[in-house]
Amino acid sequence: MTATDPALTALAQGWCALSLLHGKIETRVERALQAGHGLSSREYSLLDVLSRQHNGPGGHLQMKQVADAVVLSQSATTRLVTRLEDRGLLTRYLCDTDRRGIYTDVTEAGLALLEAARPTNDRALRTALDEASLVPELAPLVRVVEERQVPA
Questions:
Q1: Alpha carbons 68 and 119: distance in angstroms, whole number
Q2: How far apart, in whole angstroms, are the C-alpha atoms of residue 63 and residue 109?
Q3: Which end is more exposed in the chain, N or C (fewer Cβ atoms within 10 Å of the end residue's Cβ)?
Q4: Is pLDDT at 150 greater than 70 in this prediction?
Q5: Within 52-95, where are the H helices?
Q6: Tens of pLDDT along 74-127?
Q7: pLDDT digit string (tens) for 7-58?
Q8: 70-109: string of b/e by CB count within 10 Å (b at 16+)?
């Protein structure tokens, strides 16, 4: 392939469109969550992921799993957890069966903030997707995102 290969150009254009869509969504959601709840989109994502944990085998995520779920490095995830713990939104504790394992739970205050922020997140996401659907290069990607919705 050369730099002028049509397939490479289409691939690069597709990647640029995907990156643009992500950026538009991230910016819209970030602004809405910050303005309405004092949360970054990463903080919201972390609270959301951790709120889905449950008691029992395999119910709690290890920090590496949390890092993978919020698409951050382990060190960045640890810093994020520490910030939210300092705000009283999370707690950390040692695993009963493996003292090397550290788990994180969302506190009642964290759950309340998450529930208050969820409609804001959803509205911002919907607005960003609606706006992006009007851009011809982004409309096909928006359709893909909308088709991937999991029924409640």
A1: 25
A2: 21
A3: C
A4: no
A5: 63-70, 74-86
A6: 999 999 999 999 999 999 887 777 666 788 899 999 999 999 999 999 999 999
A7: 768 888 889 999 999 999 999 999 999 999 999 999 999 999 999 987 766 6
A8: bebeeeebbebbeebeeeebbeeeeeeeeeeeebbebbee
Query: Which amino acid makes up residue 65?
Result: Q
> What are the Cα distances from residue 152, in Å, to 50, 98, 149?
19, 35, 9
Under 8 Å between Cβ of 24 and 128 = yes
pTM for this structure?
Answer: 0.85
Rounded-to-5 percentages of helix, strand, coil across the chain = 65, 5, 30
- The type of residue at 144 is V
Which of 45, 47, 50 is closest to 103 using CA atoms? 50
